[in-house]
Amino acid sequence: MKVTFLGTGTSQGVPVIACNCKVCKSNDKRDIRLRSSVLIEVGGITLVIDSGPDFRQQMLRADVKSLDGILFTHEHKDHIAGLDDVRAFNWVNKRHVDVYAESRVIKALKNEFGYAFAENPYPGVPKIGLNTITEEPFLVKGIKVIPIRGKHMHLPVLGYRIGDFTYLTDFNYIFNSELEKVKGSKVLVINGVRKEPHVSHYCLPEAIEVIQKANPDKGYVTHISHQLGLYSEEDTLLPENIHLAYDELELNI
């Protein structure tokens, strides 16, 4: 399995518009963060988790030529806004793109991209196959996907485990029963927006605590804001098996 971090930033990305902090002015490419998303290539299948506003740029940068499915964590704009750009894959791959989401999220997609689901759509709209999922495991072209339930303040969200890889973003709470599903992962990715507590996201100390409870071989922190600090300074302070993720980081699991 190959995992590529397409984006590791928060809803505003890094640099933040009009910000003059040292992180936003950094020349280190590891401090430049598109909105959070990850590319998973396993068994000849290509999957993406979330298609935020930077989806087009991410697909071009990672040179993705074929897409078998998009798994959605929740309906916030920084995780769904780029869905229209699957039109390119419709044209090149000559097929629709399947998306997998809870019924609540599918309703949001229909509202946001209503023209794509109209009874008589005009030519050129994105062709999207809607697949409603629950907390039960499901298959994407033979690849087993295990949903992991968490909370994003009051909003239910889903993370996903595929083989030895688990991806959790926009969590600020995980049930003990769900954490059991994570245990045994070789790699766990989890959001850690900043060092200080946050109302709807894990902060860095909380993310580290969850990683240590799950006890993967390696843990990576994503959904990082400019408030966390410079990569070159902060990554060295983490426990030995935990790192800050950064855009275009590739993992082979």
TrEMBL record:
Top-level lineage group: Bacteria
Residues in the signal sequence: none
Annotated Metallo-beta-lactamase domain residues: 34-223
InterPro entries reported for this sequence: Metallo-B-lactamas, RibonucZ/Hydroxyglut_hydro
SMART domains per UniProt: Lactamase_B
Gene3D superfamilies, per the entry: Ribonuclease Z/Hydroxyacylglutathione hydrolase-like
Transmembrane segments: none
Name listed for the protein in its UniProt record: MBL fold metallo-hydrolase
Species per Swiss-Prot/TrEMBL record: Plebeiibacterium sediminum
